[in-house]
């Protein structure tokens, strides 16, 4: 049956709910109409499949596949509103949005700017990653199916190709068509393989990115068969041959996406995003600032619409809804990640202030009852990742993401903040604040209270969570600069942090958090051998005690005190009490669990593993914490089992030298050879100035039988000890492994004199096999308190 318009044109009747207004466009498989949704008084776009396609299909199976796609909710996926079969004709409805297809954009400008092409590709990849996680494969990614509106890309027709394929081949045979488009079709899809999964969409996305950058698809030909034949046999073409300005790293990303074998491609859209972001560099990073109640997008959607309707692919609305509807549509978040606020001042010297705003909000929100906050290190690990809130939510296991900007100019500060639902990408709340810098603590309290109200916690939960840590604004700024320098953790930055924290407590001797920061720095300097333990550890202890005298509720200071008691004082009962108190005060503070795990390692290995795993769970993207389980297993003599978690730590942070060092040691003790040496060498290459990793390398050489190389490291460390701090315990272990017991005791005595924290490792399995039976060694074990 049909209906018509005033001009007498006949329209297919799909439902009494929809009144057809006009035809928007048509293709070989479908026609798109503008229609009025009578029930909700809105315009929709209805795509009606051609009679030839509809008649050749098993309608029930087609609609079942389309209904699966209808459950997808993502900022970069066209939502499916309705579908059905009427008089043998299949159709589905979508929202309408003014915009244009990527195909129309490429028709006007065949080669897009790198930043724009990368942005579109990442947004499409984000949609694919979400869909694939829900077991939905698109099967027909192409420029015609990507809508651009207000600088945002969304993918249309999820479920259509699968629905056609699932319904049977009759329709395709009748029309001479195949599911997919030859220019973008993966080899496995082109050959009719049943093993078509999300990696097929990655291939199509690679083809599309190639075309956005070069002006043509990677394989061209006069017929579909010719195109497919080239994709199956020709070498993967380089995009740089058509546009030399394309970065080689981006060309490599495209080549991997176009790999003929699916196993050689990126396994997920998120992997593609991360690789492309790294390859494209900072020019292709995403800006962030959507309006409240809209879906999060990589750029603020312009107020003006782009223009023409996307008709061939099926127009789509990037729905905007009020914040109250967002909260009604999903359960209220009880976990949140605070991403580093962006310094919007244009002055790099103000980075410390934006980082400080982030830290203060993390601290304040962490005190709110019934709200779990992702740990600082994990949030900061995503600082340079152009990832969507949905991806971040999955990565950090949180339900909401807070991000924003800080613009400081003179004595004024302007902060924009937004809270995004990490499940559907909608903005729950956003606001802008402007105050005098002197009102920064009140500003932090105002933002915290607004967030708590936005997620519908009790308003009282936000009360007094932002405490004024000092009355001296200059001391506060010095503290923030110290925290900012602390983040880098190099020898130089730690010295800078010491200076700033020291200046802060000079201006305000009652500034407890500055004293706690000073304790942290001294202890890390000692642990990394950037300072002599017998110098830095007492300073760290004094600073921690001063902090606790001023504020006994600081879990950070209790953790620092426990670490000094454990590794320097060898006051194990005191260390236990400090760690217990830290965890009682703040069970979500990851370093407390990490250092407690190291303390327990030779006392209760099972409990130590649980604490190490808890620390990693609380802060999953922290490189130091990621190696905790591996270190505990090494300390317990479970060397082979230590390899897997240490490999994971290296994969998480490939540039974190200690993870490579520990992996090398675990491999060597497990009987590995070349790989163990390669990991230890990598650690030294990443931080050649660190004498501790050099000690790891020497020990790995000794364990793998390279006596000459091990002795070379011993000689170098011995020489460096005149001016630098070294691990005498490492040297002793190397010499003992080589059978030089007497020299080993010389360095063990030096370790005792220097109060080295590594002496708590004296009884670790697999070490000191020659010296262990010597009475001198037993006296050392007793002196260290490890009986």
Task: Summarize the SSE layout with pairings.
Blueprint: E1 2-4, E2 10-12, E3 18-26, E4 30-37, E5 42-49, H1 51-55, H2 59-69, E6 82-86, E7 89-95, E8 100-101, H3 102-108, H4 114-133, E9 146-149, E10 152-155, H5 160-166, H6 170-175, H7 187-190, H8 198-214, H9 224-233, H10 248-257, H11 269-280, H12 323-329, E11 335-338, E12 342-343, H13 351-366, E13 372-373, H14 376-381, H15 389-396, E14 400-409, E15 412-421, E16 427-436, H16 440-454, H17 473-488, H18 491-507, H19 512-527, H20 533-550, H21 555-569, H22 572-585, H23 590-600, H24 605-618, H25 623-626, H26 628-635, H27 639-652, H28 657-669, H29 674-686, H30 691-703, H31 707-720, H32 728-737, H33 741-753, H34 775-784
Helix pairs in contact: 2-5, 4-8, 4-11, 8-10, 10-11, 13-16, 13-17, 17-18, 17-19, 18-19, 19-20, 19-21, 20-21, 21-22, 21-23, 22-23, 23-24, 24-26, 26-27, 27-28, 28-29, 28-30, 29-30, 30-31, 30-32, 32-33
